[in-house]
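Support reply, case 0932

Customer input (verbatim):
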Amino acid sequence: MTNWKGRPVLVTGADGFIGSRLTEKLLGAGARVRALALYNSFDSAGWLDTINQTDTLDIVRGDIRDAAFVHRLMQGQDIVLHLAALISIPHSYAVAHSYVDTNIVGTLNVLEGARIHGPSRVVVTSTSEVYGTAQYEPIDERHPLHGQSPYSASKIGADAMAEAYARSHEVPVVILRPFNTYGPRQSERAIIPTILRQALDPACVEIRLGDLTPRRDFTFVDDTAAAFMAAGTAVGMAYGEPFNAGSGKSITIGDLVSTILRSLNINKPVIESAERLRPSASEVRALIADSSKFSNATGWSPAVSLPEGIHRTAAWWRERLEKGKARAATNYLA
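Our regenerated output:
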């Protein structure tokens, strides 16, 4: 593992699910972390409010869409891990313009800041959704890009901007494409937490999901955080190129819910609900990663199995429910 001690690292989107866990991992490794949280009027830094505060953590509130702010934010940073984004696929159908502003323009602001300030590495967060439904499996980085939602289209645009800055300005930017990440702190709008929430909540007499036939490749959040750290420091990585990070194993949503219910020893009916279906042409039918390019470049591989990851995530949800901190999400799709 690279020596992170004392290194100034900027994490955008640090208030989110993956970003907050990545911030914890960086702090544990000795980095000095500047953590960007989206400004709000509630004086909240999202999930950063739940982690141990240290003198090596500098929480800054702001907005990735503000170019002047991002310019100031990036001064003096050695490594930039850019996770800030709008990520909900269903919400992107309704507010596509916001996804362009945050995901494309926000990434442009980071890349322009990197061009000016010269960090040693920038990691831009992509997504497996840019591939659309698999045309062949497993999916490697040569797979065609297919924007099946405004969200995925905005991430394709951000990836292209990163490639352009590497080619045009020699910005040392790596494009990391995590496949489906899960774990504690994830929103109920994602499939594993929505299954766990409904399975563990005694107020839910059934589990309502969308289409049970799509297949997904799941990676536990600690492994995804490790992928970001590897992408941020590995020697000899090709700049402006994408790197997949996934388990290389897939499971249907139907088999996933059965696996979760068996592991929890819970028996509830599973209902396919029409309001949780994506538009038919927008549903990504299959995702499974070929991460060999990234593994060869960094030595990274997932360490947490799906059963172990589900066990850890379920424990977190039990605690949330016992403390009355969980409330049902609305208008989300499986």
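We compared this against your earlier run and they match. Two observations from our side: The chain is about 40% helix and 15% strand. The longest helix spans residues 96-117. Please reopen the case if you see a mismatch on your end.
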